[in-house]
Design a protein that fits this description.
- Helix content is 25%, strand content 25%.
- With 314 residues, it is of the alpha/beta class.
- It has two domains: 17-47 and 159-313, Vaccinia Virus protein VP39 (Rossmann fold, 3-Layer(aba) Sandwich); 52-151, no CATH class.
- The strands form three sheets. The protein has a seven-stranded mixed β-sheet, covered by helices on one side. A seven-stranded mixed β-sheet has the order 12-11-10-13-14-16-15, with helices on both faces. A two-stranded antiparallel sheet has the order 8-9.
- Strand 6 (131-133) and strand 7 (136-139) form a beta hairpin.
- The longest helix is centred in the middle third of the chain and has 18 residues, at 161-178.
Length: 314
């Protein structure tokens, strides 16, 4: 393998950025064509290349690289190829440990300036780096602070800092306009989407499974109600809210919209990283209508896309 496209890691990376955006826009429109709302033009990534704030690599006898899709074969990625998708500080950090003989998985993540490492086992790495082995600090300070929010080594971190900021700004503007009495933030992570509203004084109930993300959320939203449970186990009536946010994993949130609408919230903001599962979940709505579909180019070089569905009570 010689390029990220050849390896199947970033299959669209060789295309001009405008062509990539057109393909991803078309994918969203195909998946969501039955919703009955025109899909807005995609919000482009401020970084057309070199945008990823985190990369997950595998170490082996050949160095650091990616498992080829559908295979256990390791492709040791050249740094100049990695630079086509990852931020400069991430590429530099990978270069520092590329020849250390690391075995197993390593994730390099960044706050836009400083890079840290998350290893799945102890490894011979330089002493002056910031690293953790799963939940235990190995050296330095592997906790990031991004836009004022704590992100622990094992907490979810969006892959594109600039696009995440654009999404947060858009969602926060909608929350401010809605002036909710209380926000329910499902799959809330470290509070990425609701922290600004909480800082303005809006009560928030955040639901996230127990772990480092809930620990981060307690620090980022001090005094908020944090329910440490899998969002899929949340039940209507557990808390009052009139506006809900959900940001589930790629598998979507089957059955969640039916549960959310039982108590008739005024507004639901559903952020999805898979148009197909979003279309499936939106198909279950009753008594609500989708008023906006806004895609964001979170993943340049790939076929993936982030989409925000704005759902209002009919």
């Amino acid at each position: 393998m010689s390029t990220l496209a050849d390896a199947g890691i970033a299959p669209l990376v060789d295309l001009p950025y405008t062509d990539q955006v057109a393909l991803r826009q078309a994918r969203v429109e195909r998946a969501l064509g039955r919703v009955g709302v025109p899909v807005e033009p995609m919000v482009r990534s401020p970084r057309e290349s070199g945008s990823r704030t985190r990369v997950k690599l595998r170490g082996g006898s050949g160095g650091l690289g990616f498992h080829l899709p559908g295979s256990h074969d390791l492709w040791a990625v050249p740094l100049d190829e990695l630079a086509r998708i990852a931020r400069p500080e991430v590429v530099e950090a990978v270069g520092r440990i590329a020849d250390c003989g690391i075995e197993g998985e390593v994730e390099v993540r960044s706050d836009g300036e400083r890079a840290v490492y998350v290893l799945d086992r102890h490894a011979p790495i330089p002493k002056d780096v910031h690293a953790s082995v799963l939940k235990k600090r190995k050296s330095g300070d592997p906790v990031l602070v991004i836009d004022g929010l704590r992100v622990s080594p094992m907490s979810f971190l969006q892959v594109n800092l600039e696009v995440n900021r654009l999404i947060v700004q858009d969602i926060d503007a909608m929350l401010a306009a809605a002036n909710p009495a209380r926000i329910l933030d499902l799959y809330g992570g470290n509070g990425n989407l609701s922290a600004r509203a909480f800082a303005r004084g809006t009560p928030v109930t955040l639901v996230e499974r127990e772990g480092s993300a809930t620990e981060d959320a307690r620090r980022n939203l001090p005094g908020a109600e944090i329910l440490a449970l899998d969002a899929g186990r949340w039940k209507p009536g557990q808390t009052f809210y009139d506006v809900a946010i959900l940001d589930p994993p790629r598998a979507g949130a089957p059955g969640m919209l039916e549960r959310l609408t039982v108590t008739r919230p005024r507004l639901i903001l559903y952020l999805s990283c898979d148009p197909a599962t979003l279309a499936r979940d939106l198909g279950t709505l009753r008594g609500y209508r989708v008023t906006r579909l806004q895609p964001y180019d979170m993943f340049p070089g790939t076929e993936h896309v982030e989409t925000l569905a704005v759902i209002e009570r009919s």
